[in-house]
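Chapter summary example.
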Amino acid sequence: MAEDLPRFVRRRRPAWEELGQLVERVGRDRLGLDDLARLDRLYRRATSDLALARAFFPGSDAYVFLNQLCARAYGAIYRRRPSKARALRRFVLHDFPGTFVAEIRFFWMALGLLLAGALTGMVAALAEPASVDAVVPAELRAHINQGTLWTDTVLLSATPLVVGSQILVNNMAVALTAFGMGLTAGLGTGVVLLFNGLHIGAILTLCFKADLGFGLLGFMVAHGFVEIASILIAGQAGLILGAAIVAPGELTRGDALRLRGRRALRLVLGTLPLFFAIGMVEGFVSPGRLFPGPLKLALGMTLAALLFAYLIKLGRAAAVDDDA
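The structure predicted for these 324 residues follows.
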């Protein structure tokens, strides 16, 4: 093909945008015969463009954009609107894990930022404990100085259901912040991940210095693996938004944000049931001595293993289906 990618996109973009507008209208308006005929012609041209992109520009943003556009147009023209149950099933078995695997490089970036923050918090707490006073809340510092863990009294303040609900709201707030701050070109998402890592590293280090570290880990292990993984997935979504702004490729930033934003939103929506489940674990299982430490550790590791087995196995299967 003599035509390069930027020229191909510039030449064909008006038709793609018109097709996208008609597809959106199908869901809310009754199209006339002329519009339906135009929709059919534009769809056929787009599928031809998709074949060219698959042959000459595989893996490009233009190919991904056209693949999704043609899928939406096909659904608007030929398929009945799926039931809510079927749409939910597709999201759980295909969309969420498939997006996680396809965008996994951003998950590793989020993990790297969190670990960098944790390492910084650990070093700061070891070298100069007063330097982390702004990171560790005063109430937690008071407990540590007294040689007690605040987690021992978590059930005294409220019922497990209330505690779990409070934790759910807090975790969702962190996740939505990490996601939304992706609109700052990803810088805000990076700050959220670094700060949360700094918080974890500083608190753990101060607790180990006060001989409370293993007690805190005993509280964390039942819920911590999945909780941190869910926050990282939300951070992954925020970094995807940031990448769409910083490096839109051959697409306009608006098109890149629409394309990448839908993928990022899938990840955030997928974390919501995870936060709900882990909030209940943190409210009912993690506090107190009703469940022994080894059982909590086994539960936490099992939940994490099931989560990543689900994401990776179904995510790879979704990638194969999309390439077929």
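To summarize the output: Residues 5-81 form one domain.
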